Amino acid sequence: MATTSEANALRYNLDVDYVVRYSFGNVDQSQAIQELEKLLRTLTSVGLQTEVRQGDETSLLIFVRATSKRLKRAVYRSRVRDWLYGILNAEPDSAGSIEPATEAERLRVINQMITLPAEEGGAGITPNHGEWKNVTNVFPLHDEETNKKWMRDWSKKTFLSDEDLDQIRDKFGESVGFYFSFLQSYFRFLIFPAVFGFSCWFFLGGYSVIYTAVNSLWCIIFVEYWKRQEVDLSCRWQTKGLSVVQTPRREFKPEKHVRDEGTGEMRGIFPATKRMQRQLLQIPFAILAAIALGVIIATCFAIEIFISELYNGPFKTYLVFIPTILVSAGVPTISAVLMSIATKLNDFENHETNDGYDVALTQKVFVINFITSYLPVLLTAFVYVPFASRIVPYLDVFRLTVRPFVSKEHCESKKSHFQIDPARLRNQVIYFTVTAQIVGLAMETIVPYLKQHAFRKYKEYKKRNGNGNGNGKAGQNGDKGSPERSPIMTYDDPAEEKEFLKRVRNEVELSEYEVTDDLREMCIQFGYLALFSPVWPLVPVSFFINNWIELRSDFFKICMEFQRPTPLRADTIGPWLDTLGFLSWVGSITSAALVYLFSGNPHHGPNGDVTDIRGWALLLVIFFSEHLYLIIRYAVQTAMTRLEPPHARKERAERYLMRKRYLDSTVTTDTEKDLQSDKDDTLPETPEISRSALEDDARRSSMHDTDPAERFWQRQHGWTESAEIGAGIIRAQPSSGSAKKQQ
Amino acid sequence: MATTSEANALRYNLDVDYVVRYSFGNVDQSQAIQELEKLLRTLTSVGLQTEVRQGDETSLLIFVRATSKRLKRAVYRSRVRDWLYGILNAEPDSAGSIEPATEAERLRVINQMITLPAEEGGAGITPNHGEWKNVTNVFPLHDEETNKKWMRDWSKKTFLSDEDLDQIRDKFGESVGFYFSFLQSYFRFLIFPAVFGFSCWFFLGGYSVIYTAVNSLWCIIFVEYWKRQEVDLSCRWQTKGLSVVQTPRREFKPEKHVRDEGTGEMRGIFPATKRMQRQLLQIPFAILAAIALGVIIATCFAIEIFISELYNGPFKTYLVFIPTILVSAGVPTISAVLMSIATKLNDFENHETNDGYDVALTQKVFVINFITSYLPVLLTAFVYVPFASRIVPYLDVFRLTVRPFVSKEHCESKKSHFQIDPARLRNQVIYFTVTAQIVGLAMETIVPYLKQHAFRKYKEYKKRNGNGNGNGKAGQNGDKGSPERSPIMTYDDPAEEKEFLKRVRNEVELSEYEVTDDLREMCIQFGYLALFSPVWPLVPVSFFINNWIELRSDFFKICMEFQRPTPLRADTIGPWLDTLGFLSWVGSITSAALVYLFSGNPHHGPNGDVTDIRGWALLLVIFFSEHLYLIIRYAVQTAMTRLEPPHARKERAERYLMRKRYLDSTVTTDTEKDLQSDKDDTLPETPEISRSALEDDARRSSMHDTDPAERFWQRQHGWTESAEIGAGIIRAQPSSGSAKKQQ
C-alpha cells in the first residue's frame, strides 16, 4: 500500500524504481549498441519501462520503472512461492487485487523481475557476470527526504521504538531491519552492565569477582534473549523458515542434475560429503592464520616491550613507533592475503546458495578477526604479566640489532632493571575499547564522507576552471591533442532534470552496502565486553555511549556513503549468533583466569609476582568457572524455550487456521451428513441394537454356525442385558464385608 | 487394513478389543450395580458393544468391541486433529472410506473412544480417578500367536530388519517401536567398539590412549546418528511434531482459563514463570540426593576396604558381607524415599501434559540413578587409588567397633601393612558390566516369570485340593463358617470360553508396562561404556552380547509379564537423548583422567604411586580432552545436519504438495486467465506500448501538465527510442581506445 510518504518519495525520485548502469568503456561501439538494445528489449519484455540518460563518458544510466499490471503479477508469483514453502500462512489473493505490502517488497520484487532467470519470469540480468558483464550496477535510489527526517528524529531520542524498526524494515528490507533491531537490543541491554560496571569500578576497582560473575550472567541472558527475539521478529516480519527459499548461487557448479520428487523441479546436486571433505581444509587454514598473525603480533609485542621498557638509548621516542608501524603495516597486509586465501577456499567448497556461501566465509574470516582483535590483549594478560620476568631477559637479543647504531658504552651503561608496568594491561584495554572505537567510527563514517565531498568539490572546481578555458563539451573535435586540459564532462541534460541526474551520478559512484561488516564490528565489540571487561569495568559504559552514536552513524553511512541496498530478506543475523555464544563461552574462561591472576592488586594492577600463581589452582578455577557457565547457560536456555514469543504463538495459530480453512473447503456433503448425524445421536434405544444384532445373528447363524467370536458376542444383547448379568454376578458374591476380609 | 494375521488374532481373542475391569469389592452392592449400569450405558453410547463376565470374587470383566461405523468416525476425527496440527500431511478422507491403518491405530482410537472426555467424543472413563475409580484396568489382550512367532523368528537372527521394527510399531505403537529401534541401533553400533575393544585388550591392555580416543569418538557419532535416526523414524511413522498434540494431564490444576485465539478452544493456563520458580526446588533436591546416597555409599565403601584389606581378625569371611548387605539394604531404601520426594515435587510443579510430567520426573530420578550407578566406581578410581595411602590409616576408627568382639592381642598382632589392591578397580568394573547385567536380566525377566508360574501352580493345587473336599462353588450357603476350608473360585463359564477366560484372568493380574524403565536401563549401560571402559576394554563385548539377549528378553517380558500396552505415539525417546549426550560428555572427562592416572601400569593395574600424579597436569589433560570432545562433537553435529535423512526430505515434499493442492483448489478463473495470458505474452510490439502510453500521455497531459515524473517518463516512448538515444550517446563519446586511456 503506497502511503503518502512513499508516494512523495517516488515522485521525488521521478518515479524511478531502479537504476541500471551499463558501461561501454571496454567494448567497441557497435557491440555496445547491440548489447544496449538487447538489454532494453529484455527489460521491457518483463514489463519495465525504460529511460536512458548519460552516466559519464563510459557509461549509460538506464532508469527502470515497473508497470502496474506486471508488478502485481510478479508480486503474486513471489507470494505463491512463499506460500508453497511455508513462509507465508495466508493464501495469496488472486492476481487482480495484489499490491506490494511495503516499499521493500516492491523493490525486492522489481529486483527479482530484473535478475531472476527467464524460466522463473525475470529478465535474467546478472550484473558483472556472464553475458551481462557490462552491466555494472543495479540499485534503487535513496529516499533522501525520509532519510533526513529519520536522522533528525532519532538524534533526539534515546531508544528506537518497535514502530521505528518496522519502518526501517518497510524501507530497507528485513536484513537491514534485523541489524538495527540487534543493535537496538544490544544497546538497551547495555544499560545494566554500564550502571553496574560504573558502581563496581567506583567501589571495588578492577578484577572483582562480583563484577565478573554478573558480567558473564549478563552475556548469557543477552544471547539467549536475542535468540528468542529473532524468532519473534521473524514471525512478525513473516520470514520464518526462510532458509528453504534461498537464492541459488550463480557460480555453483553442480555435479549432476536430478528431479526433485516433491516439487518436480530440476535441481543441481553436489554431494554434501564431498563438500565436507573440502571443508576440512579449514583446519590447516586456521592454523596457518593463527601462526602468521600470531608471529607478527607477538614479534611486534616483544619489540615494543624491549624498546619501551628495556631500551634507554637514543631516539627512544621515535623508535617506540617502530612496532606500531610494523603492526599497522604488517597485520592488514597479512590479513588481506589470508582473506583472499579464505575466499578461494570458499569458492572451492562450491556452495549451493548465497547464504551458505556467506556463512562459510564468515566462519573463516572470523578466525582472522579473532586473532587480530584479541591476541594483543591475551598476550599482555597471560604471557607478559605472569612470565615477563623470565622471558624479558631473552629479549636482549634485540640489543644486537640496535648495537650497530648505538655506541657500546651507551648500551651497557643504560641497561636498566626490568620491572613490569602494572598499568599496561589496563591501558591496552582502554585503548581497544575507547580509542579504537572512536577511531573506527571516524574511519568508517566521517572520513569517507569528507573524502566524497572533497572529491566533488575538486571536480566542480575543475569544471569551473575548465569551462573558463573554453568549451568543455566532451566529444567535440580538436581537444584531444592537448594534454594539459583534461576534458571535463558536461552532460546534455534537460534543464529540469539536471539536479536529479547530478544526484543520481553521485549515487552511482558509491559502493554496495554489506550488512555483515557492521555485524562483525558489533560482535567483536561484544567480545571485548565478554573477555576483558573485568580488567576495566567501565568498558560497558564506553560501549553504551559508542552504540548510541553507532546506530545513528550507521544509518547515516547507509544513506550517505553507500548505494541504497536492494532489500534482502532474513530471519536471523546468521553466523554471528553462534559467534556471540562462542565469545561468551571464551569469556567465561578468560574472565575467571584474569580475576584469579590479578585480583591481588585491584587498584594498581598486577605486580607480576609469579610465585603466587599456582598452575593447578588456575586450572581448577577455569574448570569450575567454565562448567558453572555451561550449567547456567543450559538453565537459561531451558527457561527461554518455555516462554514462547508472542508472535511465534500467533504464527502457529495462523498455520492451524490455514489447515482448518483447507479442511472446511474440502469437506463433502456426505461427511457433513455423517458428522451431523453423529452429533444428533442420542443414546440409541436398546431395542435398536437388539434388532439389528438379531438380524445380524439370524443372517450369520444361517451361514456360519461355528464362529466362536460371534457366539461370544451374542450372549448378551445390549447393555441392559449385560447389566443384568453383571448385577447377578455381583449379588452372587459374598457380602462386601466378608469380601473385604477375604481380600 | 485388517490383514490375515490381524484377523486371525482378533478371532483368537474372540474379537475382543479391550478389557475393562470393574472392581466392586469396596462398595456396597446396590451402588456397584448402579455404577455398572452407568458404565455399560456410557460405553454403549460411544459405539462399543459390551459383554460382561466374572473376573474374580470382587471384580467383573467387561469385554468391549467397537462397531465398524463408529470406529471409522473416531478414526476420522483423530486424523482430522492430526491434520490440523500439522502432524499428518495428507488430508483425511471423508468419513465413509476410512479404515485404521494399523492395529496400533485401531487400539489407540478405541482407547480414545473409552477415555476421552465427552466433549471430545469419548466415554470419559478415567481409570482409578474421579467418578470411575472402581474401574481399575483398561487394556487390550495379547496376540499370543504373533508374539510366539516373532520370538521364534528373532531368536534365529542377529539383526532385526526395518520391516521387523515396522511390524513392532504396527502392533504395539510408536513409543515401543522407538525403544526397540533404539535398542537395535545401539546393538548394531556396538559391533565396532566390541571388535576394537577386544583387539585393544589383547594387544595393549587397559588404559590405552588410542582406545579411549576411539571410544569417545564412537560415543559422539552414535548419539548424533541416533538424533538423525529419530527424525527419520518420526517422519516415516508420521509422528513428527507430535509435541503440539500432547494429551493433557488430568491432575493439572490451571490458574485461569483463556480462549486460545488461534484454535478457539478454551485452555487452562498456569504461568510458566511460576512453574519455573517451583522447578528451582530441583537444586536442593539434587544436593540432598547426592549427600544422602553419597554418604551411605562412601561409608559402606570405607567399611569394605577396612574389612577386606586391613582387618585380619576372626569372622573375616562373614564380615566381608556386611557392607554388601548395608548397601543392598540402605541404597534402595533411601532411593525409594528420594523417589517419593521427587514425585511429590513433580506434582507440585503442576505440569500441563503427561509428556511434560514424565520428562520432568525423569530428570529428577536420573540424579538418583547416576549416583547409585556410578559413584562406587568413581570412588574407587579417584579417591581410593590416588589417596588411599593417606586416608586408609584413618579407617582405623573402625577397629574401635570391632574391639569388643575380638581379643586385644588378636587385633594388634594381626595389624597388617596396607597395600592398594591394584585389581580392585578392574574387578569392580567387571562386576558392574558383566555380573550386574546378568543379575539384572534375571531379576527383570526370569524371576517374575517363575514367580507367576509358581503362583498359578499353587492356585491350581489349592483348587484341586479344595474340590476334593467338597463343592467349592463360591457363594453357596453353609461354607462361610468353617475357617479351615478357604472358598475356592470356580466360575460359571460357558464351556467353550473357559480357556479364553482363564487366559484373560491371568492377564488381568499383570502390571502395566512402562517403556521409560527399559530406556533408563539402556542409558545407564551406555554410561558405563562412556565413563569407565578404558579400565577394561572388553566392556563393549559384554554389552554386545547382553543387548542381543536384552532385545529378545524385553519383548518376552512385554508379552509374558505385562499387560499389552495401550499403543502410545512418540517422536523421540525423550529426555534420555539428552542423558546420552550428557553421559558422553562426562565420559570425556573421566576417561582422560583415568588414562592419565593409571596408564603407568596397563596390565597390573595402578600401584597408587601418588608422587607421579601432578594436579596441574591432570587438570590440563582434562581441559584439553573435554574441549577436544566439544570441538569434535560440534563438527559431527554440523556434518549430520547437512545429511538430511531420506524420510525427512519426503515429509518436506509432502508439506509442499499439500499446499500446492490447496492452492490449486482455490485458484479462480481470473487468476488462471491472467497467468495464461502471462505465459502467452510474446514481446509486446513497440507500437502497443507507444499507443497506450500515448493515450495515457494524452489523458494525463490534459489533466496534469506539471508532473515532472510523468514528463521524465515520456521523453522516450518504448525501448527502441531509448535504444536510439543510448546509441547516440555511445557514438558521441571518444572512441573506446581513448576511452580506456581516460579511465
Automatic annotation (TrEMBL), chains A, B:
TM annotation in the entry: 186-204, 283-307, 319-345, 366-387, 429-450, 576-598, 613-632
Single GO MF annotation: chloride channel activity
Classification via PANTHER family: ANOCTAMIN (PTHR12308)
Bilayer topology: Multi-pass membrane protein
Record keyword Cytoplasm present: no
Top-level taxon of the source organism: Eukaryota
Natural source organism: Penicillium atrosanguineum
Segments of this protein annotated with the region Disordered: 462-490, 668-717, 724-743
GO cellular component terms given for this protein: cortical endoplasmic reticulum; membrane
Ranges of compositional bias, category Polar residues: 733-743
Keywords: Membrane, Transmembrane, Transmembrane helix
The Anoctamin transmembrane domain, residue ranges: 168-654
Compartments (UniProt record): Membrane
Name of protein: Uncharacterized protein
Main location per the UniProt record: membrane
Composition bias type Basic and acidic residues, residue spans: 670-682, 693-713
